[in-house]
Amino acid sequence: MVLLDLLKGFFGPFIAQCMCNAQVAAGGPDYSSWVPLVAGLLVILGHSFTCFAGFRGGKGVLAALGVFLAISPITVLIGFAAWAVLTFSTKYVSVGSIGGCAVLGLLSVFGYVCPELYFEEIGLGQMILAVVVALFVIVKHKANIKRLMNGTENGFGSKRKTPKESV
Hints:
Layout: H1 2-25, H2 35-48, H3 61-71, H4 73-90, H5 93-113, H6 124-140, H7 142-150
Helix pairs in contact: 1-2, 1-3, 2-3, 3-4, 3-6, 4-5, 5-6
């Protein structure tokens, strides 16, 4: 499932970019600055609100990773590194997912605002999509955030202590 979610995220904007390139090569208009972004957004929304599960799906993290691998590979790999550090240091996947998406959004803003200091070209559409997706993923993690605050979120690795009940 992990690989499929990642691949569906990647191939949506990748195929859209290929189609835009073919259209330009045939002498048509160039929509490559926004069509792959729309395709990526639709993949994430389709993953999160799938009709096959009553319009309730995943939180969009893996689909977003795939989308941004296609459109901003360096930025998303840094976000993935943040996910890994946060996930394995806290033992909570939700903390890593929220932090990784926040890093993706912040780096995209920085890359757009200060292109001369950044190592990847970030267009306005890419920056807006990254911020929107980061906010979307964080909102989708609302229940996880509540459980983290209550000390009841499921982690992995060593056994976790359950919160003490009030007497």
